[in-house]
């Protein structure tokens, strides 16, 4: 009879173990005698199902500087951790692959010079949460045009089991340079090939980070990196949108057409050296003169822009 009871108990344990499926998260630790370790919510939650995804807006980071975001590691069980629990974290490419597939995106892992995080953390006895920091550095390898996703996985715990649903997560983050923001443009525009095309001022635009010291002019009305014009109705120059480069002395050193120099329709951008061509950090204002060139239509320059771009707030 005793042997029959032991066999029954063994079968019961096997049955309960088989219930711990990958989609179980907050398992009843009292019932199952198990303590689950998971990655808890950090930042804005980007996903509802599949691999969890979180987003942190890190704001402005200067070249060479760093900022951090939190990574929360959570103990779920009866009460708090009964002892110190060591949790090993690692970067996991398979996690990012699954996240990209589930969400139809193409995020990439940041270079090691850009990101770092602790690989060993401890949930202290008597607590149920520990927070560590992942550090993002705008190094020379930082690509502002890349969609970075940091895939962190709990690879080992000293006690308990790793959550099937929240044992890994992808952390995305936004970084802007100091020129990024919402602006208003005033000034003049002359189209030497078509006097009927005039400037549409004032314009509401975003100066969008494209590099450590470059920004692209995003037309908020058109909804893209373009430059709107009046015809007298609303229009814009196709395949023409500008990116400004600013040096350490706040001088605007170049302007290019982001669609090509030249684009397929022959349009390119060129800085007019007769302009002030500077950024004033005290007032957060750009003063710049530049041309749109299109030699197949008219030479040497088709359109002249003389603009003041004034900061109005965070984008």
Overall average residue pLDDT: 89
Oligomer: single chain
Tally the helices: what do you get?
3
Q: Can you tell me the CATH topology of the largest domain?
A: Immunoglobulin-like
Question: Can you walk me through this structure?
Answer:
The chain has three helices and 23 strands. By secondary structure, the chain is mainly beta. It has two domains: 23-176, hypothetical protein (bacova_03559) (Immunoglobulin-like, Sandwich); 181-313, Lipocalin, CATH 2.40.128. The model is unreliable at 1-32 (pLDDT under 50).
Topology:
Blueprint: H1 2-18, H2 29-32, E1 36-40, E2 44-45, E3 53-60, E4 66-76, E5 85-91, H3 93-103, E6 115-116, E7 120-123, E8 129-137, E9 150-157, E10 161-162, E11 168-176, E12 181-191, E13 198-199, E14 203-211, E15 214-219, E16 228-230, E17 234-236, E18 242-246, E19 252-257, E20 268-271, E21 278-280, E22 285-294, E23 298-313
Parallel strand pairs: 1-10, 3-11
Antiparallel strand pairs: 1-4, 2-3, 4-8, 5-7, 5-9, 6-8, 9-11, 12-14, 12-23, 13-16, 14-15, 15-18, 16-17, 18-19, 20-22, 21-22, 22-23
């Amino acid at each position: 009879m005793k042997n029959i009871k032991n066999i029954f108990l063994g079968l019961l344990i096997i049955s309960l173990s088989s219930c711990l499926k990958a989609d179980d998260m907050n398992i009843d630790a009292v019932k199952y005698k198990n303590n689950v370790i998971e990655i808890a919510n950090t930042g804005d939650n980007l996903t509802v199902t599949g691999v969890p995804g979180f987003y942190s807006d890190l704001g402005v980071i200067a070249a060479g500087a760093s900022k951090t975001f939190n990574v929360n590691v959570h103990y779920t069980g009866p009460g708090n951790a009964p002892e110190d629990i060591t949790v090993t974290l690692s970067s996991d490419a398979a996690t990012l692959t699954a996240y990209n597939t589930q969400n139809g995106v193409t995020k990439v892992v940041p270079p090691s010079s850009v990101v770092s995080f602790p690989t060993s953390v401890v949930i202290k006895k008597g607590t149920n949460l520990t927070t560590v920091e992942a550090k993002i550095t705008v190094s020379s390898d930082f690509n502002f045009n890349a969609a970075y996703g940091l895939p962190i996985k709990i690879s080992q715990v000293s006690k308990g089991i790793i959550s099937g649903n929240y044992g890994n997560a992808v952390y995305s983050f936004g970084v802007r340079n100091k020129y990024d923001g919402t602006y208003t443009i005033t000034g003049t525009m002359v189209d030497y090939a078509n006097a009927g095309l005039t400037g549409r001022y004032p314009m509401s635009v975003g100066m969008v980070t494209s590099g450590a010291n470059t920004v692209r002019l995003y037309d908020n009305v058109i909804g893209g990196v373009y430059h709107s014009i009046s015809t007298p109705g609303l229009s814009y120059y196709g395949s023409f949108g500008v990116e400004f480069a600013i040096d350490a002395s706040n001088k605007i050193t170049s302007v290019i057409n982001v669609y090509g120099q030249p684009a397929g329709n022959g349009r390119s951008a060129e800085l007019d050296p007769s302009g002030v061509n500077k950024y004033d950090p005290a007032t957060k204002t750009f003063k710049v003169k530049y041309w749109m060139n299109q030699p197949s239509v008219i030479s040497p320059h088709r359109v002249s822009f003389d603009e003041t771009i004034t900061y109005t707030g965070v984008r």
